[in-house]
Amino acid sequence: MTKILGLTGGIATGKSTVVKVFKELGFPVVDADVIAREIVEVGMPALAKIVSTFGTEILQPDGSLDRKKLGALVFSDEEKRQKLNALLSPFLREAILSQIEKKKDRASLVVVDIPLLYEGGYENDMDQVAVVYVPETIQLDRLMKRDHLTEQEAWQRINSQLSIEQKKQRADIVFDNQKTIQETKKLVENWVLKNHF
């Protein structure tokens, strides 16, 4: 039977590093971020919902979503961020579950990469949940460097998610990503070998 592994972490904890290892090992990955972009493309019902809630000023001249404008709007206002999440949630869930179903027949393990796994209540759709972990101080440092953010901007993004410590406590598996990429890769490979996938 195929195992469904939910993979999450915090922003800038190195989740994409772990996803890359699973892909290199040949396991199919359902990527919630890719799906989140697809469901708000021009002509999609989710985009129409966003426009009817937040107005046409969050659109580019060509009618596509202006992610920067929407991001600025929702990261500075908790109520608007929650409204956006509630609005997109049903579209996202349907698309994610449908992709899991499609990929189940292809491998013994399907990895489902969902940044907001716990926040979106997806843990019940998974057989196990793995969290890619680094302490918040490292997370903050990496995020500021990666996205060229001020400390305040970085904290806004970190605090828009469940804390990494809470995610770590709730996880079935923790991939500690504080050391080198090679060491993280070894952790994932060892887990796969141990579980005979």
Question: Could you explain how this protein is built, in words?
Answer:
The chain is an alpha/beta fold and 197 residues long. It has 2 domains: 1-28 and 110-192, Rossmann fold (3-Layer(aba) Sandwich); 35-106, no CATH class. It is 53% helix and 13% strand. The chain is built from 9 helices and 5 strands; from the N terminus they run E-H-E-H-H-H-H-E-E-H-H-H-E-H. The protein has helices at residues 15-24, 32-38, 45-54, 67-75, 78-103, 136-147, 151-159, 164-170, 181-194, and strands at residues 3-9, 29-31, 109-113, 128-133, 173-176. A 5-stranded parallel beta sheet has the order 2-3-1-4-5, with helices on both faces. Helix 1 (15-24) packs across helix 9 (181-194), helix 3 runs antiparallel to helix 5 and helix 6 crosses helix 7. The N and C termini lie close together (11 Å). The mean pLDDT is 94. Pathway: Cofactor biosynthesis; coenzyme A biosynthesis; CoA from (R)-pantothenate: step 5/5. It is found in: Cytoplasm. Its main location: cytoplasm.
